[in-house]
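Let's practice the habit of predicting before peeking. Look at the sequence and jot down your guess about where helices and strands might fall. Then scroll down.
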Amino acid sequence: MAFENSTLPSIRCWTHASCAQNGLLNISFVRSDISGLLIVAHGSTVNPDSSAPTLAHAAEIRRRKIFAAVECAFWKEEPSLRDALFLFDPESIREVYVVPNFISEGYFTQTVVPRELELSGRITTRSNGQVWKYCEPVGNHPAMTESLLKRAREVAPGIDPAETSLLIVAHGTDLNENSAVAAKREAEKIRALGKYAAVLNVYMEEPPLVSDWRKLTETPNVVVVPFFISDGLHSYEDIPVLLGIASSHPEPRKLSGSKDPAAKPLSNFTGSLDSARDDIGPSRGEIFRRNPYKIDGRSLFYAPSIGTDPGFAEIIIEQAFAAKS
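Done guessing? Here is the structure:
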């Protein structure tokens, strides 16, 4: 996509063809006093960490002063998606770019967000003349591939990829079949690079199941990267249980709170998930710091969710730029 010249600083581009030699993408989205950015995300009623990455990305974008206003709205937190209709003054903000901070083009991006924001399509003109432009979700950005590879390198430094299987974990759901497409697409792209001995897209709720990782892989090293926006109950608790690494934590205690009511039960786990969570240590983040986990003579490396990478702020900006053209 071509952009006009701009006086703004260049934005780092990770995987666009024009950036193959670590080049920079010149952004033409000149700072406008009439444009606003709305970042929408899922959020959680029981896990404050769910919204943390989205809020952090918004703060970084706000710091860059590209948009006249930058706001966030959530499905399960405040401000709600419905509240977002009133976050931008129509007298001063004449256009609003809505970027879904979601990994996949699925149920929430195609059904929930348009319904709650009263969007009629990619471009919606309100009765007050304010124009809302609905952008692609962050998970559709080509930078996802390099983000996943970067996260895998960070969690398992010095490990030979030729002796390593890379597992990209997504939720999987029957609400919308597209929810599994993003993980499959990224696994295929990384597999084509020929860096890892094996690259698999696995799921919590549908085959191939992450709980079957021992049968699915044969390498001495296994790197698991959750393909999620934030580190929530899935990455802190559910996936570790399915991987069999939760019980390796010392000082077990019961975590307060219950599972997000919007989440489906883990159909592939036959034990009691609540009892298994008793094994999780006092610090949720500790689950990512105890790598590698030694299981059956193999080394398993477990990474934080991909959406916690600070580089997602740039991806959000670029998704808005794409809608402006």
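How did you do? The chain has two domains: 11-140+310-324, 144-308.
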